[in-house]
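User: Let's play a game. I give you a shape written as tokens, and you guess the letters that built it. Ready? Here's round one.
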């Protein structure tokens, strides 16, 4: 069944009638991230086939990232810089997904996953018995084998890079938890490619931390810190990898109003809730009694300026002590960062963290 090129839309999505079936084959790093060696396609163009791959593997972000660096052979021909929406697929055809190469990342010319596509070698023409030249297929086959061979070799290098990255991320998570910098093992993502060049330099440009089961505390007790995330820039590691210095870092997390009230000394009966931008409401036994402002200084969070409302005004004398300025100081913060802000949100207090020249040991 052929492909009607005129039926392909500018976005590369064609009517079902124009689609053909074939096979997508993944190589090396792409194969490792896809978890399969090949899968069928039903599409009219390369763009449509890749869109289907993204939809099927939306739960594999690493695969989608690798695909962003790859280039492709369609029925043995390199796609190069052509518009993928204009690359027609054939019935029973094949799409080879060649893995990214860390080499030649800035080289000019046609490219395969970051490396130039080698020119096919020149081969002697064969002549038929009547003296006419007939093209030799051995040269093209040899070039294709060479291309795929180099792609596999590059893929092995990339695979080693990704393997080392995974091990490093696991080790970093363990050391952060074991060193007391995080209340539990975080998720660590080391950005940048290739990873091994950063190992050689001893500095990682961009390290991302996240977790939903972290805690913060005031020295007396710990409370849950949800939706924690942080970005550490310029992480320079020591030679023994047992310590590191972070040039700068920032992050945020959320503590519930119930937990915030637990951290306020002498306010066991006080209940806090969202009162609007920069404000919290206070209640006692479910009865609203006032509204105050929230601000921070250093690692200390303060709620003050409470104004009694409604019937609470009749109990002004008994409530004035309870609704005086209330503060708590956080002494155990994640990743060695410091508190730089606290903002009321409907779900709780959003804490903002920041740090420069932070030392991490362990």
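Assistant: Ready! My guess for every position:
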């Amino acid at each position: 069944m052929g492909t009607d090129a005129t039926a392909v839309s500018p976005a590369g999505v064609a009517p079902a009638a124009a689609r053909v079936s074939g096979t997508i084959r993944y190589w090396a790093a792409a194969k490792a991230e896809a978890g399969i060696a090949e899968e069928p396609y039903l599409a009219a163009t390369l763009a449509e086939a890749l869109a289907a791959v993204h939809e099927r593997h939306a739960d594999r972000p690493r695969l989608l990232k690798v695909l962003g660096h790859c280039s492709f052979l369609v029925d043995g021909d390199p796609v190069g810089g052509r518009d993928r929406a204009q690359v027609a697929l054939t019935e029973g055809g094949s799409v080879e997904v060649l893995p990214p190469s860390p080499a030649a990342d800035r080289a000019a010319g046609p490219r395969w996953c970051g490396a130039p596509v080698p020119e096919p070698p020149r081969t002697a023409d064969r002549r038929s018995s009547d003296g006419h030249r007939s093209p030799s297929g051995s040269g093209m086959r040899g070039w294709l084998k060479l291309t795929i061979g180099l792609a596999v070799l590059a893929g092995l290098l990339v695979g080693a890079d990704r393997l080392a990255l995974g091990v490093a991320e696991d080790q970093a998570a363990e050391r952060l938890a074991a060193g007391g910098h995080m209340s539990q093992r975080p998720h660590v993502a080391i950005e940048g490619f290739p990873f091994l060049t950063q190992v050689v330099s001893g500095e990682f440009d961009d390290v991302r931390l996240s977790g939903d089961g972290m805690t913060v505390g005031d020295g007396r007790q710990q409370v849950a810190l949800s939706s924690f995330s942080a970005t550490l820039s310029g992480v320079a590691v020591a030679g023994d990898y047992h310590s590191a210095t972070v040039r700068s870092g920032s992050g945020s997390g959320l503590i519930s109003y119930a937990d915030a009230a637990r951290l306020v000394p002498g306010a066991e009966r006080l209940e806090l809730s969202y009162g609007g931008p920069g404000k919290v409401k206070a209640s006692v036994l479910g009865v609203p009694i006032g509204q105050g402002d929230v601000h921070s200084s250093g690692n200390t969070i303060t709620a003050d300026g409470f104004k009694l409302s409604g019937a609470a005004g009749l109990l002004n004398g008994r409530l004035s002590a309870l609704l005086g300025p209330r503060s708590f100081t956080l002494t155990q913060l994640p990743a060695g960062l410091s508190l730089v802000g606290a903002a009321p949100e409907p779900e709780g207090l959003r804490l903002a963290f920041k740090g420069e020249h932070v030392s991490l040991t362990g």
